[in-house]
Amino acid sequence: MSRSTTTGQPHRSARAKSGTQQTGAADAAVLAELRPGQSVELLKELHILTREGRLNQDSRRKLKQVYHLYQFIEPLLAELSADGHAPLLADHGAGKSYLGFILYDLFFKQLGRGEIYGIEWRAELVQRSRELARRLGFARMHFLDMAVADAAGAAELPERFDIVTALHACDTATDDAIAFGLRKQARAMVLVPCCQAEVAACLRGTKALSLSRTPLAELWRHPIHTREMGSQITNVLRCLHLEASGYQVTVTELVGWEHSMKNELILARYTGQKKRSARERLAAILEEFGLAQALGSRFGLDDAGSVAA
Fold first, then answer.
1. Order of strands across the sheet with 188-194?
2. pTM of the full structure
């Protein structure tokens, strides 16, 4: 008995040592995925990291998306905060405010100036974000309980913003974020559209007429194609609307398709050069697809049927 016990101790010790080494390797692997200066405690509070500092596959995907978006936003913030300017950023459809908290942690905290406003209609998420910001000492983060569509006229918000973001703002909330950015004279907008259904619904409603008029209607005859075509048209209209309003627009991927199917990233920077060709094509596309009456005002069409300047 004593021989068995004695010989078992080294094996247990070796297993414990191996386990410690594996844990250390796992911790190092997690830290290697984080950006320099990133608060581990913040990521735990956001439940991106577990309390033990681990990163599961779903959290890794979420963090990859936010970090990739940060790569596009950080240069804009650096440019707009030059010469002592305090940048103002509005994050629409903020949800749990992953993006806002990480932007503050990686950029605003060190900058020492500037503010982030998270706009979210779910009151419980707003309250949770307020409490977290208070615990972390993120004093220049603000959270408003309201719909995106109501935010432009809200007295609690500044008259102008430098950057407007909307990460996976569903359906027309992305359009509301664009309208907010236009009204607030945003210098840049960073948009990841999601769940576009409005145009698809319009296409379904006029499908029979379209099929009798043009063979191109075959592109959205089947329901799955209607949804995909509606999504594609929606984002094309958004880009033309932004270009017609004086923005230079770039469209790219947010992350690889293996991480998210809602993957289109629209980057818009204000130049002041309102493109006449974009206005004309916007009006033509709305007319071609039978969308002018239902959606014209959403994309800047006036009552006369032309695109408002």
1. 141-145, 115-120, 88-92, 163-170, 188-194, 264-270, 247-253
2. 0.84
